[in-house]
Amino acid sequence: MCTTQAKVSEMMATCQAECEESTFQLRAWLRFYIELIGAANIDYAATVWHNFIIPKHRFIFLKIINEQLLNRDHLSRILTSDLCVVCENALESHNHLFVDSIYTRKFVDSVENWAGCLSWPKCFRELQERKCPAKPDLDELVLNAIYSATLYKLWRNRNNCLFNVICHSASFLSKEIKCMVKARVVGFHCINAKGKDSYIWRVVNSW
Ligand SMILES: [Zn+2]
């Protein structure tokens, strides 16, 4: 019996060591990737990498800030058309997709109807330079998660238009964001939240 227990303890210790090693390797790979794409030493890290933001949203958020998405202004040499696939009214660029497009403005309006003001950038430069405060309040963190989800959905919808010939309505995507952010934020619910934080939790829970 003692031998069995010793073997189990030994296996658990080995598993823990392997787990710690793979976590370390994952972090090392992440650092390598960030350096590779030229996003090292950025002061918007806290804005992009917060737990409230779904990992795939963080990834697209980072690519947008670094203007690295493969949209049509980058692919214009090999594509026959570089028009925006969502509205077909302007050249597709990061600035058009995430700031200028009529669809984007309508989408942001729809999100702001339930989320409050997102202070959406007026130009792409402003989007790249946007930062969360050093010590953000809970409401600022929630708004940042909504902001990131909105960027992600804009890119996802653009890809749906391009590859599946489907363009979802702004209100449909807005509702999806609401459910997504609620699930994420409530998943980190703090039962000890007090005062203003407690109020914010109740608002998010009511979505
Ligand atoms: Zn467009």
TrEMBL record:
Protein name: Reverse transcriptase zinc-binding domain-containing protein
Stored InterPro entries: RVT-Znf (IPR026960)
Higher taxonomy: Eukaryota, Viridiplantae, Streptophyta, Embryophyta, Tracheophyta
One Pfam family matching this protein: zf-RVT
Domain Reverse transcriptase zinc-binding span(s) in chain numbering: 42-106
Organism listed in the record: Cannabis sativa (Hemp)
